[in-house]
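Chain A, query sequence.
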Amino acid sequence: MQKKFKLDLTQESIVIIVQTHNRPTHLQYLVDSLRAARHIEKTLLIISHDYYSAKLNAIVDSVDFCPVMQIFYPYAMQIHPTTFPGEHPNDCPRNIGKAKAVLQKCNNAEHPDKYGHYREARYAQTKHHWFWKLHRVFDEMNYTRNFSGLVLLLEEDHYVTPDSIAVLQQMRQLKKQQCPDCNILTLGTYDKKPSYGYLASKVDISGWISSKHNMGMALDREVWEKIRKCSDAFCKYDDYNWDWTLQYIGTTCFPSPQLLKVMLSRSPRVFHIGECGVHHKGKNCDPGDKVKQITALLQSNQQFLFPSGLTVMGKVGTTKRKMKANGGWGDVRDHELCMSFIHDTKQR
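Chain A, predicted structure.
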């Protein structure tokens, strides 16, 4: 942790966790954007890795604008390349089919996912890492295990606006005044044509939907405790996506009638610059081009950043949505590893 900063977390502080894999160029852009964010010097930045490289380490070492810590997911494929949770030589191929898998006696032959497919380690790792990092920060780390303020979740291919932290602080105040049951605050949107103007000071309130409200989302210990109590459901739900799984437990396991409810910034304060990645294979994989577009957008809307206050623009009722699992999470070894983060006393 940077010794030049005195770490004095209060319940009004903000902790930022960045989940990273192995895209140093993207991480550098994110760090550059955080450097320009107002109030970043009062924020604890935690970089959570599932891959170690000298390049990534150098980028984190360059952070001189706020307190920073690194944590490392201990069950990464990089550490376990030929054993679970990496890819064991006897693991069942994804599309082998159960009958053939049983005959071949490959690993986990009896437990394909709901679509008949077997696990792919690189996809399973992301959900494990997401769950582990929250447990690590909220339950184990000395600096944060008693912290009950906001924790902002970012990924290496995100990019924040200069007023991102300031707006998140305003959203926290608005939540207290007008939406005390809002349990997630989200800064990012997937609008293809994002706009500012009068929208820059507006928020919407609705039920949390994984595909719309998962980018730049902030939560607190109260929400984590609900997730933690539903850890078995989270770890056994047949979906390799952490966000779809979160929506599932929010509608099936959280105390009734409490559902996940989000306050969403109408103008984005977090952008996605990863045109290529786990789920997307774009034609142009250079994040620099995306950053240039974002920079131009923000420069042309400078006068709308840092609004003096926020108001609620729209409210949409929170209703339960029927969930359809995406699969990729049928392997009982994944269930057991995931649950071990919470239940294994050896890690405490």
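The chain has eleven helices and eleven strands. The first strand starts at residue 14 and ends at 20.
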